[in-house]
Amino acid sequence: MTRSHWQQLVDHAARDAPNECCGYLRARHGRVDEITEASNARSSPYGYELEGAALLRVNELDDEGWEIGVYHSHPRSPAEPSQTDINLATYPHWTYLIVSLADPNAPVVRAWRMADGRVEEEPVDLD
């Protein structure tokens, strides 16, 4: 992802704080092509849910062969999946990114693959 993409994720998280933000990205060959901000249907500082139209669009992109990443923020906690995040990660081939604003002066973006209760970190490479 480019530094501009990274900044877009951080800016979205900061705008929606103290609630969690969410959205999705599409990629080809591991390179992010586009990031789309979505509404958090839960409007909560403790969880997120992509609103219906966004989730439908993500599934369409998946069907079209795009690599999918879904992101959300942790306004006050580390960029590590909570048990709720793990339980809600129902698409094992998607990447889940978490933006942490726990230290607002040093935001962190980390990526995870989650399937069947297993969690593996993936690199976030900045171009």
Q: Can you give keywords for this protein?
A:
127 residues; alpha+beta; Cytidine Deaminase, domain 2; 6-stranded mixed β-sheet; globular
CATH class: Alpha Beta
Over all CA atoms, what is the radius of gyration?
13 Å
Distance between the termini: 6 Å
Protein structure class = alpha+beta
Widest sheet: strand ordering? 2-1-3-4-5-6
Q: Counting H and I runs of at least 4 residues, what is the number of helices?
A: 3
Average predicted local confidence, pLDDT = 96
- Helix-strand string: HEEHEHEEE
Shape: globular
What is the helix fraction of residues, given as a range?
Answer: 25-40%
Q: Can you summarize the main beta sheet? A: 6 strands, mixed
Task: Tell me how many strands there are.
Answer: 6
Specify the CATH architecture.
3-Layer(aba) Sandwich
Low-confidence segments, given as residue ranges, are: none
CATH topology: Cytidine Deaminase, domain 2
Topology diagram in text:
Elements: H1 3-16, E1 22-28, E2 31-38, H2 52-63, E3 67-74, H3 83-88, E4 95-100, E5 108-115, E6 118-122
What does this protein structure show overall?
- The protein is 25% helix and 33% strand.
- The chain has 127 residues and is α+β, with helices and mostly antiparallel strands.
- The protein is built from three helices and six strands.
- The protein is globular, with a radius of gyration of 13 Å.
- It has a single domain, classed as 3-Layer(aba) Sandwich (Cytidine Deaminase, domain 2), CATH 3.40.140.
- A six-stranded mixed beta sheet has the order 2-1-3-4-5-6.
- The termini are close together.
- Strand 5 (108-115) and strand 6 form a beta hairpin.
- The mean pLDDT is 96.
